[in-house]
Amino acid sequence: MSKDLTVVHHADRRTDVVMPYAPGIVVRRGHLVFLSGVTAAPVYHSHPHRDEEFDLPTTMREQAVLTMENLKKTLEAAGCTLRDVVSATRYVTNVAEQDDMNRVWAQYLGNHLPTTTTVEVSRLATHARCKLEISAIAVTEEVRVAARTARARRETREASGEMAGVRAAARTARRRRGTREASGEMVRRK
Q1: What is the dihedral of CA 15, 18, 21, 22, to 10 degrees?
Q2: CA-CA to 75 of 20 to 30 Å: which in 137, 160, 188, 189?
Q3: What is the spatial distance between Cα 27 and Cα 3, in angstroms, rounded to a whole number?
Q4: Distances from the Cα of 82 to the Cα of 48, 136, 167, 182, 190, angstroms
Q5: Digitized pLDDT (tens) for each residue of the chain, 190 residues in all
């Protein structure tokens, strides 16, 4: 099943201004992927937080680049790309730095314009030095998500050593079944 999206504009749309977002997007077909907020900090960090894990750049531009890279990684893990994003909420700690964030956003998204909301907050929960957090919703086709998810589960099991146990259990089950078949214990049902 391929996804089917339509960008929505107002009837009285101004064409003399450049919009960095779409006013609305209708999703007629596809699978929704909801992403937790990402910042410039590593996605995987200690909880409770440890200050030494948060070596963050000081400028919005540098933090925006790291945040977009973390967003890309999360999308890729779900079988998506930035072009699959249909909505994003961007939380900034200083709205005066919004233009720097928007320039980086535009570099990553090009002419792809998801819906966006930008909110100024006093502080982000991840770390006091974080300047930006982005949460997003993407739409993808079923095949890509299923293939990536199964592969990711297998890779996680292999990395953790769990697959060795799974393979050993499968061998044991096959041996037991062979023993039961040879003894006549197993009768095939039709």
Answers
A1: 10
A2: 160
A3: 8
A4: 30, 10, 37, 56, 51
A5: 677 777 777 788 778 877 666 777 777 778 889 999 999 998 888 888 888 888 999 999 999 999 999 999 999 988 899 999 999 999 999 999 999 999 999 999 999 999 999 999 999 999 999 999 999 999 988 644 445 555 666 666 666 665 566 666 666 666 666 665 666 665 554 4
